[in-house]
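Model: You mentioned two targets. I'll fold them one after the other.
Researcher: Yes, keep them separate.
Model: Target one:
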Amino acid sequence: MDSQLTDFEDAIAGVEMFAGLDPEVRRRIAAAAVPRTYRKGQLLFVEDDPGESLVVVRRGAVAVFRTSTTGERALLHVVRPPGVLGEVALLDGAPRSASVEAIENCSALALSRAAFLELVHANPRILDSVLHALGGLIRRLTEQNTDHVFLDLAGRVAKTLVRLAGDNPAAMVTVELNQSQLAEMAGGSRQSVNQAIGTFAGRGWLRTEGRRIVIMDLSALRRRAGITN
């Protein structure tokens, strides 16, 4: 049990929301967390489910999406370790605003809202960390909305690939998304996104390997997306 708690503490320490907290506070968060595992394709939760927990992704990857009344899906975000889901639910307890699906086999930690509120009463600094994380979420959503106004589809595809690559310093970065999922994230048809991918491949910026996309020139994609810093 001690080794498991240590593993949980390491996972909590890697989350930006909790990284600045004292080790003892992170230990309490880890002790209150419950381990979860999900198979590829399994739903963690769906829109309008009770918003009763925060989820910390330890291994694997999950896709956050919304579904229209006609059944069409819009992929909003891909979360990999040490990412979190459900920050808003910790504050307002409202129903989930999006669905989440494991796109790889995943392990995670769930922190219930009740346990979180109990920890906040004893350690108010936790709330500061959550509010900081919410600020980052709002900035990301604002940027995505702005992209749909100012970027053409190819620019949005390039920016989506840059986001998915993250801070990976490797010369080549593999994105584990198929082109249908990429089309959902970029807000375009699969055919149009395929054309953009084909153009980028022809310029030597990336190549496709089955359901994966291997980025070979991240700098070129950043320029196409209008990212200057």
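Model: Target two:
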Amino acid sequence: MARTAIEFRNVSKQYANTSQYAVAGVNMRISEGSFITILGTSGSGKTTLLKMVNRIYEATSGEILYFGESIKNLKIEEYRRKIGYVIQQVGLFPHMTVEENIGTIPQILKWDTDTIAKRVDALLELVCLSPREFKKRYPRQLSGGQQQRVGLARAMAADPDIMLMDEPFGAIDAITRQNLQEELIRIQRKLNKTILFVTHDVSEAFKLGDKVVIMHEGEIQQFDTPYGIISKPANEYVARLIATQDIVQRLKVLKAQSVMLPVDAQVSDRAFRVGTEESLHNILTYFLEHDQNHVLVEDGGRGVVGKITWEQLKVSTRQGEILSA
């Protein structure tokens, strides 16, 4: 059972000289190692919610717990070093090289020079930038996508428990954004970090998040898996929000594990096999190109854990919705 990394207990935020709450009565538990996307339009409270986690903003009322302890009881400087923070503007220091930018927090923590150098190289490799080619460059010598990769590496430099990301890909072109999304998914699976990721893009939220928080006017409208939200929207607002996504987009962001059926005791060796993270769009494409009535779903060392039938996807797309298994 995963530990609770962050818990909100009836948390509200009201700014001075305003009658409305930016965040109102939020109760939520975020499990360690989960990837949570926070989705909402401008003014919905999503960024305020994020910034209360690392105490850039203090809650007006309620309590936020970090692994069971109120963050108000923690020394703020030490607490913030346990949390990586990535924003849209990146915020790299222009007068520092890539190497110096990434090594900022380790230097503050008084790591030795060799340890910092090895950490910088390892992180650049992790974000797919060659240390030999990039660590002596300055931010002005990098593309927007490269700067964002360095910003991500810098946020991970001290191996934080939690990563906060505030629309980090919002200013990036569509192709680079898609590549960065894939890299972030890969990194999260490898390191098992707890990530809170703010976005206003429905597709991005559903693609990245194990669970999605949908906010509107400071309140959480729904907190569920992408499949749970698509199959059972909590209210009219959520239903309208996800209605902007056509069936093809939904199939692209939903994963095999979200709809797979129980598998029979005996399975055919000839059946096509996919991973639990395979998109339903790719599985539908396979069905359209091959004469088979089902695929098997595998989960690494556990072997076959389920199946998806052609009939299941065919009915789903014909009705314009994804049906519950």
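Researcher: Noted. Anything on target two?
Model: Residues 4-245 form a domain with the Rossmann fold fold (CATH 3.40.50.300).
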